[in-house]
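Q: What would this complex look like in 3D?
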Amino acid sequence: MTADPQFRRLARFVSPADRGFAAIVYAGSILFALLIVALFVELVLGSWPSIVKFGPSFIWNSAWDPVNSKFGALPMIYGTVVTSLTAIALAAFVGIMAAVFLADFAPRWLAAPLSFLIELLAAVPSVVYGLWGLFILAPFVRTAIGPALQHALGWLPIFSGPIYGVGLLTGGIILALMIVPTVTAISRDVIAAIPRDLREASASLGTTKWETATRVVLPAARVGIFGACVLALGRALGETIAVTMVIGNRPEISASLFAPSYTLASVIANEFTEATTSIYISALIELGLILFLVSIVVNALARLMIWSVRGSGA
Amino acid sequence: MRNQHLGRRRIYATLGTLLALCCAALGAAALLAILGYVVVQGIGVINWTFLTQLPTPVGVPGGGVGNGILGTLIIIGIATAMALPIGLLTGIYLALFGRGSIPEALRFLSDVLSGVPSIAIGLFAYAVLVAPLKHFSAFSASFAFMMLMLPLLVRTSEQAIRSVPQTVREGALALGMSNFRATWRIVLPTARPAIITALLLAIARVTGETAPLLFTAFGSQFWETNPNSPMAVLALQVFNYAISPYPNWQAQAWAGAFVLVFAVFALSLGARLALRRAMRGFEA
Amino acid sequence: MIGSFVRRLGALGVLAAMTVPAAAATQLTGAGATFDYPFFSKAFYIYSQKNPNVTVNYQSIGSGGGIAQFIAKTVDFGASDVPMNAGELGRAGQPVLQFPVTLGGEAIAYNLPGVTVNIRLTRQIIADIYLGKILKWNDPQITRLNNGVNLPDMPIIVVHRSDGSGTTYIFTDFLSHVSPEWKSKVGVGKSVSWPAPSAVGAKGNEGVAGQVRSTPGAIGYVELAYVVENHMPAAILQNKASKWVTCSPDTIAAAAATKPDVSPTNFSVVDAAGANSYPISGFSWVMVYKKPADSARAKLVYGVLSWLVGPEGQANAKSVDYVPLPENVQTTALATLKQMQH
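A: Here is my prediction, written as structure tokens for the whole assembly.
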């Protein structure tokens, strides 16, 4: 669905209202862009001392030693990427399936309350997720989910090693819970907005409701759903408090999903309020900058993926 | 494609529907599990005193989170007042104006913004609104919240406006409406439900945010209505109480969390009901 | 219906806010360590009841945050687990007064299913556990000390603070005192690089306590208040005088009393001498400017803080599981504060 060229051709800025309107719209958009650019600039300014001191090796160094002012971001980048990918994989599957159900299958009396409950997951404060994760989910992973996975698939490196309860998997699950409302609510709206004619046309070909939903409606809603997932992924990348309580906070790279790890946002949340030397503060802000860049890379890759599938003009 | 496969396709359809149902149920069940835990931990504490009184130290009975509730309302109110126009205008721009690389770049920036950790945005708000002015303020917290809400609003309003059928837009223009009136009177109202959903989702999200508040709103033990001063925020109180050792405070943390979720619930319900009433005479 | 209820609630809130008398009281602000928060909230509340013209808004944004805000002069006083160092004092640009206001001690909590008595550990064993040299609970070095206790054949899961904190500073200071290997390999700091292979980081005292409580085989260091309130088993340690001591307000105060001349440059009381001293103890600090810009406010700040370090203020500590300063330290603190121009 490209921006309608006909609309613009028909529209001429004939009245003062139109000129004013255009001006306000442009102003709002420019302000929006400026805010983001200012954020980027502030991040760069704040991390400049660290950039100067450590250079690009900051990204591939593995030591995080505040006592000796040795800083390297690699384990945190790894942890961020793995937990976020785990989270979006889980949340996208569950969320899109739930959205399909809510939009096309659920009876009226069920759809509204169920949607509501899922959306409320977004309102739960991060610290509550963190504590619930620490006291309920982590032991559950340690005693039930972990051993089950290891029993069935322990030969895979991602399910090997000791199970602490806290770790990449638990972090991924908590994040998934936090971002599922975004995926579900937006996807549901997108799916519901697909014109009825498309569904009726499919039905007239003799397809089952399920086939219509998965083979006709979902592809048509692809762009919107993708947008929902991108927003959700963004939240996963930047989540701090909930993750830091269940991830184990160990700056190490390990193949297993059961291993404790560390994320970029967690480090910042954990150490910023107590960092007192300026190089330490600067290194932490540089982590924020790296997160900004990780977000750029992930979004760029996702866009490339979409373009390669359907051609330009999202 | 004849009926020989119909049986199998029907089975897939049933299984698929069941799977979708399970996923939806899973999401709802997770919420109920978490909410249940919160309720069990905190239900004994919630009463009128809790909702309307100031916090008291450990061991002094009768404390509450009244100022946190008020602060949350004020800060989110200001944040929404700032985020909604900017987000909506940008969404209008992306949907209806401009073509090619500039809107694409703007969409990209919006997606990138959604990935910035909330604590980094809090630091940004600190650098821009707290450090130069030499005091903390609720307004700086609203600014940080606004940045958190924007990506969602921009993306969704663009999507919602684009979903408005071409026929509707053309009809409006054919009647001789100016660009502005067509958008304001016809397109936006049609897109309203989706935008409201996004707004509620954005509000839900920032209601639970704590990290940006540490350097912006700062927190307070007292009543405050001036956006230019430090202010108590419920999410911050929940955080401070939750990480304390005292069972009494911890119970208040859970109770506060419940109030947060319930407030968002009430807000969403209220907004949806109001919307339904408004849309009743308006068939799209 | 619900909408109107919400509206009414909001109106009630605004009304309540408006009917609160316009601040005749001056509101002082302080920021810093989370450790001090419960004690401060109790003490300042009591103070405001006796002196209604002064209220104190203290927020626990962390020691580093407190120092930063203090340097930026956005608050009247700062609070920190570790006094400001030379670099920070330089950035402040003006003479700063620092004095201790409260005491804390760190218990070694653990989770051993089936073990009902408090186990005994020497200081060296704790260091070796955190260095990763002792890996199992039934290691001979531990069983030798605990005859009759059925220590399980479980790996020791070492829990530490993931967030930078004064608690970690005090703990690593302790480890550096008792283990030269720790001192050279890891060092002292609010955030360090933990060498144990099974080390797991948890956020905040609550996080460490929670992690230990829900992970069998875990060991961790937590502030006394958390161990008391959560009824967690804590190890009995052998102090420098080779006596076995539990973590309690008395043993912590005994450690602090060995340094009556505590100062911002000489403040460590870990591994203190004395038969009753608990080895992992430390002070918490407040900082003010010697010559604050606003003299009216300075007067009020002096009033609050001098009350806080005196016997009346310190009496509030016990009710929130904090340790009052020993009298000799109270004297030192007050003497420092008296230098403030007010």
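A: To summarize the key features: The first helix of chain B runs from residue 6 to 42. Chain B touches chain A through 112 residues (CB under 8 Å).
Q: Very helpful, thank you.
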